[in-house]
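Exam revision sheet. Question 4 asks you to relate a sequence to its structure. Input first:
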Amino acid sequence: MATVLLIDPDVTTRLYTRVVFSDGGHDVIEAPTLAEGRTGLAQRPDLTLVEAYLPDGSVFDLMDELHDGKGRLRSRIIAHTADRGAVRDLANRREHIEFLPKPASPIELLRTTVLAPELRLV
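Answer key, C-alpha cells:
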C-alpha cells in the first residue's frame, strides 16, 4: 500500500481524506501547513496530496523542493483544491502537477494511489 502525505489547512478535509485512505489500507501523514508538510516529506511518501494555496506557501514552493536533481520527483504530487483560479495557475505554471478537484469522492481519492509508486518520474 501507499504512504500518503496530506497537506491541507482544513480540518474537515483532512479528516475525510484520512478516513478514505486509511480505510483503503494506506498510511496517512497529515499536515495543516506547508512547513509541517516539509517534515512529513522526510518519511518519503509515495503520494503528496496538497491544497494548492496554503497560508504559508503553495504547491509550487513544494515542487521546487521535491526535485531530486535528476529530473525526478521524490513524491508524486496532486494539487487538491476547489479554487478555480488555482486550477488556472496549475495549468499555466507546472505541467507535471496533477490536479484533483474538491470535493472528491472516495473512489476518486483512492484511484490516485493506484499508480503512486510507479509515477515518481516528472
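Marking note for examiners. The radius of gyration is 13 Å.
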